[in-house]
């Protein structure tokens, strides 16, 4: 099947062809006709399946076909959980809409708001935004959402994880009740299904990959290692195998900073991105990583959400995630679009419970290795995981209050800045 068979107009086909795409991915084959029909949609697909184009292309076609005279009003609103994902979606809107007379802009926190205010004042057709900054600008009287015809919630599961549900509900009260709604989520959790019931009207359900599965083309390996030997093992593996463009996940921001510094001292160019970094620093690090000037990018889960890096060969879990589903999201950044990829997890005795949870989720036992010279101490005792949620380490009530609640509150505050 070709893109032209999906009913896309010539101006959009020209832009798609210029990007080197010839055949739509499965999510695009299913989503584009649904969006063109004007139906609501609930879609789930693994990272790297082309879902952004799956809603951007038909959204632009619908807007171009129903352009209204007078000052431009925001007719399509795309909400994303992170700045990086907002930038990625905004870039797709610009690239695919380059031959259309539509105007778009991106709004997120962490940067000055005046250019965003100026763009809103000039008039927009498509607005891509994170919830916190969008609400701030609305409260200041800069945003009018009364003409929105298409509402997209991208990576809705992550928005719920980050505590944006109240912001989303506030924004829903600002848009017209009659509109087209498109909801994208990596998982169909109970919370997502509840949100879909509130938001969607007789939606088309699209799921192009089994729930909570990992891509078949990703080689997954676990290295057992002592906690204080992880960074030495990581440097050893990178240098021994000549890995380049390595995305490394840590559990905390402090851990990301420390690991990036340690790798750099061992002549492995590395930088960290996380919520405490300025938007400029994050953009520079990501740009250097994409261009090949930076060998290793160390990231936390929140900062890495929405990273769009073609043919990323290596993902390393320096720390296993506290939530098993995040393992699927992490390693889904390699092995994309049919390419082969490698996902390596460095697992110490503290994380055996987390590893078991991941294996239950993905319904497979991951191959375990011990690298010569890095043999773990068989008598090592597990310790509580920093910023983690170990069931055996903390009582349930305290864990919920001190861990999840504080974490979500902090993420909400950072996202709004």
Short structural description:
The chain has 417 residues and is an alpha/beta fold.
Notes on the protein architecture:
- This protein has two domains: 4-207, Rossmann fold (3-Layer(aba) Sandwich), CATH 3.40.50; 218-386, P-loop containing nucleotide triphosphate hydrolases (Rossmann fold, 3-Layer(aba) Sandwich), CATH 3.40.50.
- Helix 5 links the parallel strand 3 (104-107) and strand 4.
- The strands form two sheets. Strands 3-4-2-5-6-1-7 form a seven-stranded parallel sheet, sandwiched between helices. The protein has a seven-stranded parallel sheet with strand order 10-11-9-12-13-8-14, with helices on both faces.
- It contains 16 helices and 14 strands.
- It has 417 residues and is α/β, with parallel strands linked by helices.
- Helix 3 packs across helix 4, helix 6 crosses helix 16 and helix 14 packs across helix 15.
- The N and C termini lie far apart (44 Å).
- It has helices at 10-18, 26-37, 51-65, 83-96, 114-122, 131-139, 156-161, 165-172, 190-199, 230-241, 253-265, 279-291, 301-304, 324-331, 352-362, 396-416; strands at residues 41-44, 76-79, 104-107, 126-129, 150-153, 180-185, 204-207, 218-224, 246-249, 270-273, 296-299, 314-317, 341-347, 368-369.
- It catalyses: ATP + H2O = ADP + phosphate + H(+).
- DEAD-box RNA helicase involved in ribosome assembly. Has RNA-dependent ATPase activity and unwinds double-stranded RNA.
- It holds the Pfam family DEAD.
- Its EC number is 3.6.4.13.
- Residues 32-206 form the Helicase ATP-binding domain.
